[in-house]
Amino acid sequence: MAPRFLSLHPQTYQKLQRLKRQAEVEGEYRLARRLHAVLLNHDGHTSGAIAGLLQAPRSCVAVWLTTYEQQGWEGLLEGERPGRPPALHSLDRRRLGDILDSGPVAYGFLSGLWTSPMVARVITEEFGISYHPGHVCRLLHVLGFSVQRPQRLLIRADPLIQARWRQHIYPGIKSACQSGTALVFEDEASFRQDSTLAQTWARRGQTPRVPVTGERHSVKVFGCIEIYSGRFLFHFEPIFHAAAYLRFLERVARAYYPQPIHYIHDNASYHLDGQVQDWLASERRWWHTHALPKYSPEDNAAEPIWRHVRRTGTHNRYFRHRDELTATLVRRFRSIQQAPTQIGGYLQPFH
Predict the structure, then answer these.
(1) 218-226 and 232-237 strand pairing
(2) Exposed/middle/buried for 155, CB within 10 Å: 0-12, 13-18, 19+?
(3) What is the rounded CA–CA span in Å between residue 232 and residue 254?
(4) How many CA atoms lie within 13 A of 188 on its CB side?
(5) 159-199+215-350, superfamily in CATH?
(6) What pLDDT, on the 0 to 100 scale, is given for residue 82?
(7) Domain segments of the chain: what residues?
(8) Which residues pair with 186 in a beta bridge?
(9) Which residues are 246's β-sheet partners?
């Protein structure tokens, strides 16, 4: 009889790897071993070979693989045991959810990271019920929790001002954009010669290596995007200051005049320079300037463009010279100019 092998989607494979590492960290070694068996089977190991590698009975390995096929990874969690305490009642589950939402520090832990043993300890202290950490994972999924990577939140941002911008000011700007009026977001970015690193496909056990110079050279660029047409303008400068920004503004003005324009930028110090403000005031007949809320990069439609350029042009790249980096950026920027549909998905939320 030919051996059977599981075929896992790449994302599923990565998820199981994360769950295995998490189980090992949290001391759930039996769960980690079962997940390891599934991963090994996907990699082409038979039940007998897996049994030898994991020092487990072959019959157990077969049960683990069959359970995964039928129930997914949740089926590999610790099952019911004799004498196990009753499950949490619905009111207790809501209380547990509120505790978890408040965070481990608010409960009295030093760590800011919830783990299954910590949650099991909370359940014991609050409700007098002892759960195995493996069952805690299943309970958390039932309660609507999942393992997630936190997002950074700028604490200097004012949520009330941000809400006013998103609910009233920006919709008003869009309403004021009559036919033929451009709605433009501006931003600036620095691209380091030592490029940023990102996940990529590679052979297992052969981690890609990207050479670095150890020097902090960078290329600085101003850019602006018109959210409806996808028209993108860029301008390189050796340093960000008021004089450089004025040169970029002149370039934007030449590109759009006499088309009416609503121009949105952030609160960089040189944006508030007296000469810059004088220039903006002199163009008010056709040029309307708006400032984003402070510390609100997520409200700037130009921000995703830089991420797109890094993902498609500079991630995991070694640039021997700054000119090589600049040439790569120019090619990516011109690609956007020639085919703006490639960034349409980034701009859609701002329409």
Answers:
(1) antiparallel
(2) exposed
(3) 14
(4) 25
(5) Ribonuclease H-like superfamily/Ribonuclease H (3.30.420.10)
(6) 44
(7) 10-76, 90-142, 159-199+215-350
(8) 224
(9) none
Amino acid 187: pLDDT: 97
What confidence score (pLDDT) does residue 83 get? Answer: 45
Taking the model in full, what pTM does it have?
0.63
CA distance 244 to 187: 13
Per-residue pLDDT tens over the stretch 214-241 = 777 899 999 999 999 999 999 999 999 9
Euclidean distance between CA atoms 118 and 126, whole angstroms: 12
β-strands 261-265, 232-237: how paired? unpaired
The single residue listed with the structure tokens 């700028």 is 154
Amino acid at 81: R
The pLDDT tens digits for 113-141 are 888 888 988 998 888 888 888 788 888 88
Amino acid at 324: E
Strand order in the sheet with 261-265: 232-237, 218-226, 182-192, 261-265, 287-291
Intervals of the chain under pLDDT 50: 80-85
Question: Which H/E stretch holds residue 39?
Answer: helix 29-42
